[in-house]
Structure formats: C-alpha cells, structure tokens
Here is the input.
Amino acid sequence: MELYFLNMNYKVIAGPIDEFTSAVWKEKYYEVGNYTIHLPKKFSQVARSAEYIRTGFDSSGECKCGRVDTVKISTGDDGECEVRGVLLEGLLSNCLVYRRGEVSGSVSECALGVLGDNMRSMPFEIDAENSDVISDECVLTWEWDLLSDWLYGVLRPYGASYEVKLHAGDEKPKFRIVKGGDKSLSAVFSTSYGNIISLEYAKETGKHYNFAFIEGGDGSISVVSKFSIDRREVYKSAKEISPDKYETDEDYRKALRQKGEEEIARYPVSITLAIEAAEGVPPYYGEDYALGDICGVSDGELGIKTVLRLTSVDTVCEGGRVTVYPYFGETLRWRDLL
Here is the structure.
C-alpha cells in the first residue's frame, strides 16, 4: 500500500509514500468511516499542510481517501507523525439540510434532489446516473438535520446507503447512492472453507424497537409495527409533519408512516460477527464482495449459519502485510430481500 498527501483540490503534494508504520482504514455502511495512519516524523510538515490523504488507485481505479482532521507529532528517538480523519462520506457531516421541508416521490429521486439543493460548494460531485435506484415511493421531511445523518436515515430502511469516492482521472470525488447486492451464495465465510482465522459473535436486543408511535403536528398518532411476539415500543414526535401541508389525509398518514419506518430502522436486533479473514483465500474484498453486500457466514463449532449484511470493514496495513476484518452487523428485514 502506498500513500499520497493531497491539497484541497485533490492534487498530489507528496507521494508515493511507503514508509509508514501502520495504516488502518475503517469503512462503514451506515455511518461515516475513519482512518488512522502512523508515519515517520519527517512527514510532519507535509501532513500539516495537506487537506486529504489517499492510497494508490487499484486496478479498478478506486482508492481509499479521507480528510486530514488531526495531525499529532512527537519528537525524540521514537518520535512519529500520526494522521487521523474521516473518510470522504464525512464531508456531508459538515452540511445541514436547510430549514424545514418535505418532498415526495421515489426514494432515490428525493434523496438526490435534497442533496442537490444543499450542496453549497461541497467539494464533490453528484453522480446520479450511476447511483443505485430505490424506486419505492416515500414522503420525506427534514428540519435542520445534518445531511449525512438525514441520508443514512432515509436510505437505511431500504438496505441502501451512500458513498463518496475519488476515482482515477476524476478531478473531484463523486457521490452515489449504493445498495449492496445479495452475495450470500458466492461470498461465504466458513471455518470449513478455511477463510476464517477467528470469529467473534455477539447478539444485542436491549436497544431493539419494533413498534413505533409517531405523533403528527395535529396530535394524531400513526402506528408502524414490525413485531411478531416480542413487542417493543418507541415514541417519536414528528410535529414538523402536519396535515395542512398535504393535499389529502392519506398523504399525511403516509408521511407519518415513513417517519415510523425510519425510526424502527435505527433500532434493529443487533447481531454482529467480527471476522479476521484469511489472506490469499477467497472471497476477496473489493472483488467478490463489497461493503453493504449480503454474505453468508457459518461456523460449525458455534452452530452459526446465517445471512448478514457487511456493515463495516477494517483494512489494516502493518509490517508490509494487509489484513481485512469484515464486520457483519445487521439483521435483515423483509424489505432487504426483495
């Protein structure tokens, strides 16, 4: 892995650099990822002046890229330079969805439209043509939300998310709506296949809700339910959604139900599987499966055989070795399997 420091226009100001102690890239599907890199202190000056840092482009023209948010420098014989920051999806965490409003239509059209209306000189471009299409009809509202939080909240109920990537030959990164594919038959992690070095399983139901009461601007209550036996209730005030803003009562109720869907999606049953993937054994990250894909995971000793979405990936480069740690962290809902 080679590193490049970039200026505010994504032009290389230093690199390639392969003299680093470690580089950890944490890519996430439903929240902003981050990175931490440790380099010799001789790179301190360029690190202080850089705006971004990226890896070299791979065979498909992609790279890992993040904004330089923190530079820590220590002197002495063991002195080093530590660089940390968010990945490019974090650029949307610095922007608010302006004022209060609502929009209706397909999920993709609404999300891209609201983003376009709130760009305000953001340092990336919208790639609507290559965004995945979420055709479900919706009514979306906002009130001074962080743009990143609003987009994750809108897209998550449909198993979708967004990415901001810098590609070879592009002057600026591009924003796309993405929806992971079903790779549960082709991308399978199993102790019997020899592609797992270690596995850690955890299940958390304490923060799970499946029955939402949504209160509208006129005090009326809409109910959204996704429970079978174990009912867990949550309340959400949506005073910004009022009937006088809609042509029909059905449109008003639809907006409240949409808010309920988003609220329940924030609190799924949390089943996480943390894996240390074996080197040189398929499936290969970036080739056979990607962030957001649905994969199969099994372990005969633990009695685990399940299908989960890949919600986070740590890529660790240390001592000339690159190790991938996939994290499968979302129980699938019916909508994800359509």
Summary: The radius of gyration is 22 Å. The chain is about 15% helix and 40% strand. The first helix runs from residue 44 to 49. The mean pLDDT is 91.
